[in-house]
Amino acid sequence: MELVTGVKKPETLELGELLDGSMEGREVKVNGAIHSIRDMGNVGFVILRKREGLLQCVYEEGVSRFDLKELKDADTVEVSGTLTRSDKAPGGVEIRMQDVRILSEPAESMPLPISKWKMNTSLEAKLNYRPISLRNIRERAKFRIQEGIVRGFRDFLYTQGFTEIHTPKIGAKSAEGGANLFRLEYFHRPAILQQSPQFYKQMMVGVFDRVFETAPVFRAEKHNTKRHLNEYTSLDFEMGYIDGFEDVMAMETGFLQYTMNLLEKEYSRELRILGVELPKTEEIPAVRFDEIKRMVSEKYNRKIRTPYDLEPEEEMLIGRYAKEEWGADFVFVTHYPSKKRPFYAMDDPEDPTYTLSFDLLFRGLEITTGGQRIHDYRSLLEKMEKRGMTDEGMEQYLSAFKHGMPPHGGLGIGMERLTMQLLGEDNVRETTLFPRDLSRLEP
């Protein structure tokens, strides 16, 4: 019998341990994948790819106890040697190789030039070979930064008293309505893939007051644009006992401030790799929907064609206006028309044609929709009746309101869109690990 007593410390070292200065001049052992090999005759350079970055290893004929020709790209290996300082090496250190043990070998050569700084490969090729293309240092860095965004969301909301929840993605009724639903058969009953965790978030406000979730949502939209996906990750929160939707905007601003500080401190390597300049989050302007449409129309001489929604070109111009007039990367657009918001959105008591809701635009692209919700049971039924809706499939949702709910509001953030705008990419698939769109179900 053996007893497992916890995490076992490996003999091999990680990049952070090699860079802290304490191991210089000592014999070390590391593992990794061979990212590239430069054979210069008597000397060769073997670049290992590790989870934290690249590590240079030096082969020296007569010193290293193996033949460099035994190694090839994509081998995974364990290297033993002496750690020395080198200003020309990535990270400023390198290993003078003595021994190498091959752990695994590839069956075929690489289909993409992943060792290049920029692969100069089409997006389609990168997505077709996604498990391989993500081994490129720049491609991989995108998703490290995305990790930082989600980590910032979670960590910040924990500090604000939120409880993390996990809601079902198969349901009887959609929170958003409309025709863009993925329908399926669920044990001989009709069901749908959820467009949003909205119903569940609101119900759980009656339990925990403040809740959040990071999870996939599904939209059966037949869009083939650079900004749409049919499955994406939504960063959602809902908070109770609010004084108004402004409390929700303030909470999102706090999340953005916390997250940008986190990225600056703990993801600086990835920011440098991608040349990312973090946006300003000290203060974010908020302007009414009808007012910003008028401002943009007047400044850029653009006719207002859609009075009840923002067109993509308008969003871009609003981002441009916010930068030129207020020096802002983000802008809240508030008081969206009621006819373009779901039934649970609270109407503005001063003018019911508008709602107490908002979108957050980041550099000309909507990344967040949120607002205050109707919390009174009778008011909710009245609005549903005005829209010709029935309560079929929503009995459990409505029962939460029937038995009392506090004033509350919340939002949903498109994780991939936020990452795309932060990194300056022009296609949301660049910042989606394994995209699902009109044509792609694999890998």
What would you note in describing this structure?
Helices cover 30% and strands 27% of the residues. It is of the alpha+beta class. 33% of the residues are buried. Helix 4 (137-159) packs across helix 6 (245-266), helix 4 packs across helix 7 (268-274) and helix 8 (289-300) packs across helix 9 (312-326).
Topology:
Blueprint: H1 15-19, E1 27-39, E2 43-50, E3 53-60, E4 76-85, E5 93-104, H2 123-128, H3 130-133, H4 137-159, E6 163-164, E7 170-171, E8 183-186, E9 189-193, H5 198-208, E10 210-218, E11 231-240, H6 245-266, H7 268-274, E12 286-288, H8 289-300, H9 312-326, E13 330-334, E14 347-348, E15 351-355, E16 357-362, E17 365-372, H10 377-386, H11 395-402, E18 408-414, H12 415-423
Helix pairs in contact: 4-6, 4-7, 4-12, 8-9
Individual helix count: 12
The beta-strand count equals 18
The geometry reads as elongated
Distance between the termini: 42 Å
Helix amount: 25-40%
Radius of gyration: 26 Å
Helix and strand element order: HEEEEEHHHEEEEHEEHHEHHEEEEEHHEH
SS class: alpha+beta
Which strand-content bin applies to the residues? Answer: 25-35%
> Are there runs of 5+ residues with pLDDT below 50, and where?
none
